[in-house]
Structures are given as C-alpha cells and as structure tokens.
Amino acid sequence: MAEILQRPPVNLFTIRAISRDATMTEPREHHYTENVQEHLQQVQHLLEKQALVETVTHRQELPRDERHELLDKMVHKRHLAELREKLDELHSADIAYILEALPIDQRLMVWELVKANRDGDILIEVSDAVRESLIATMSRDELVEATEQLDTDEIADLAPDLPQNVMRDVFKSLSIEEREQLRAAMSYPEDSVGALMDFNMVHVREDVTLEVVSRYLRRFDQLPDHTDQVFVVDRDDRFRGVLPINLIVVNEPEVEVGKLMLTETIKLDPDEKADQAAQAFERYDLVSAPVVDEDGKLVGRVTVNVVLDFIRSESDTDLLNQAGLREEEDIFASVWKSAQNRWAWLALNLCTAFFASRVIGEFEDTIVQFVALATLMPIVAGIAGNSANQTTTIIIRSLALGQITQGNARRLMYKELAISGLNGLVWGGIAGLFAYFLYRSVPLGLVMTSAMMLNLTLGALVGIGIPILMQRLGRDPAIGASVMLTAITDSGGFFIFLGLATIFLI
Cα-Cα-Cα-Cα dihedral of 295, 300, 305, 311, to 10°? Predict the structure, then answer.
C-alpha cells in the first residue's frame, strides 16, 4: 500500500485521525438547533437560580447548624451540576455564542465549567475580544493543553492571542511534520488563502485503482470535515486533479483514478487574497478547493466552513469600520476599554463638527436676516448624508466583489452622479415646494431645491471617492466611511445652502 499510494511529505498533513485512538475521534453527542437563543435563556435562568441561592445564603444572619450548611451545599452543587449538564449538551459554537452574551462574572463561571475538556474548540469559536478575557483567566499549563487539542491551522489562528512562552511549549509538543505545518500557516498574511487553508486532507496517486482508494479511505476512523473530493497528485506531489467521492462509489473498482479524475477544477494560490477565494466558493458552489503553490505542488485545501467564517468576520469588520470603531468590542467589557475603542473617530467627528459650526458662523448675518434658514439647514444635510451612504454601501460591496475596475470606474461615477442629480431634482423639488408653502417665498424654494441638488451631487462624489481612494492606499474601503460622509455632507450642505441664500435672498 505504501508503494502505491502517495506518501505525505514533511510539509503536507494527510490524516491525523488515522493514528489517533478511536476514543479520540468519536463525535461528541450534542443538541444542534437553530434556536441558540433558547439555550442562552436556559443557561441564564440556571445562573440566576445559582446567584439567588448564593445571595440568600450570604444574607442569613441567624446562626446555622451543620444541617443547614449541608443543605446549602447540596443545593449549590445541584444547580452547578444542572448547569454543567446543560452545557455538555451544547456544541462548542453554541457555547461560544453564550459566553459572548454573558456579563463577565457569569461568563467566567460558565467557562470554568466547560473549559476542562473543550476549551480549545471554544477559544477558536469565540470572538477575539471575548477570547482575550478567557485567556487571561487561564494558567500556562491550561493554555498549552487547550492548544494541543487543535489542528495546526487552528493553532495558527489562535497564536496571535497566546503568550510567547505558551507557543514555545506548544511547538515542543508537536511532531516535526506539524511544526512545519504551523510555521507555514503562520507565515501567510491574515487576508490570504494561506491563512485559511488546512492540511487535513486526503490525496492519492493517479495510477492507482478505485479499489485501492476505497481500501485506503476505510483505514481512517473518520474523514476530514467537508471531504467531497480526493486530491490527485503525482510522485513529486504536484497537483493533477480531483476525484469526487461520488465517482468512487458509482464506478467499477478496477478503474484507475487517472481516467476519472477531473483536471479542469478551481485551484487556489496560497498568496491569493482570501476574498477572491470566497468569491470563487460562492460563484461555483464549492465545498472544498485545493491550494497549489507556484511550483504546482499541493500544499493544503480550503473548505466552505472556513470561507463562511471569513465572510462573516469580514462583514463584521466592515460594519465596525463604517461606524468608526477601531476593533471588535466585547459588549460587556469595562466602560473604560469600550470608551477607548470609540475615541479615535469620535475625536475626528468632533473636529468636523467644529468645522461645520464655523461654516454656519460665517453666515450668521444671513441667518439673522432670514431665520427660516436655520430650520431648513438640517434637511439639506440629512438627505445628502443618507444618499451618500447608499452610494458608499453599493461601492464598498462592488469593490469587495471585484466588480469595479479602472475600465468601468469612470462610467460608474457618471451613473451615480446622474442618480444624485435625478434624486436632487425630485426630492429637492419636493423640499422646495415645502419651503414655499411654509414660508411663502419663491426664492427660498428655489434655493432649497438648488442646494439639495448640489449637496446630493457632492455626496455622490464623496461616496464613490472615499472607498476607491482607501482601496488604492491599501486600506479597508469601509474604514470610517460613515463618519467621513456625515462630516463632508453636513459641512458641504451648510456651506452650499447658506451660500446660495446669501447670494439670492439677502
């Protein structure tokens, strides 16, 4: 068998489960349900019962005999056992969700009950902000033990949050093959395919028969998750094609792999951007895809579950960046830490607000002579801000999908300017009529309409320009987009509206 099948090289992980004890690979029994909120409510109810018992116990002022103390301990242990039993039923991802939704004190109580046997899996699932609070409570030995439970690609994901002395101990505990895998995984940028790939895969040679492949697969206690195809390589580990699992089942055992394998398949480069791989998975409905280096050698694979996690993470990051938050925030973090996370863009927003106030201050004489301007200014700024946010959302999404290029960027800009012009004419006209009927002034209505058209055009220019500029600078197009748009459309709207009023009304 060793002569026929491809032996995995030092830097390629075939199947870890083949050498594990059967008890290590048996799947754990858990309740899988979409209603994770129900689990959260049940855990919160058990925590409240536990807290109530402790409160009553601490408030008792009368002397207690040994029987009362024993009863309190029994009730306390019963509640803890009930809570532990409930947590043991849940999947690691559900426990991670519950930990993120609990205040710090309750979170640490739950963590103490579950971390002994599944702490590694849960640390991978929780958000970065919550992971930091959990790791802070763990000893060096606990962190090493938790990390050793994970595959090398998962260790690479966890490595930035672990102390250096823990990582040194983890390296020492790994085999030579796994050390090479971990070094390779940690060498790629976070936004690359290499950071998403794992080494837990099956590959065979093209000159073997399906019967040999079937016998080879039956040697494993379980196949890697999302194994929809077997990768085919030559004697030098160069990628040749893929063999879908269903072809192994429906064809005759004596047929060779080379005659059935698919050579026209999606291949990913480890240095390729991860968002491009995510687009390929979405476009072609992939479950897994091989990762092939520049020499044509198979170095790993990417699976759909990792891609989904990446897409979710990128969506969360974009949402935070648009709001001007520096990083993901633990909703139950300290007031001081949460406030610091929001300071950077609030400081910028304060500066832009002062600038907007100075714009208004320059037109004090105009406002004094025509007080109605003060009530109409927010309308001009608000409508333009909303329109600009719509434009920015579309542009950021198109940039993420790779739909905007140098060839079509100019045409897209013309289109958005046309849309803003049309919206300005329609809604500016409505606002102008509103101003006319309210203040019986035709010039004021015309100024309102003109200001709306000009400010919506400004919003469109900014809504397109900021994301494209940020991308060309190598930054996330969503960073601070909402804050910057609000600042520019507010200041620009005030200046345009009051400037036109000064020219035509005073």
Answer: -40
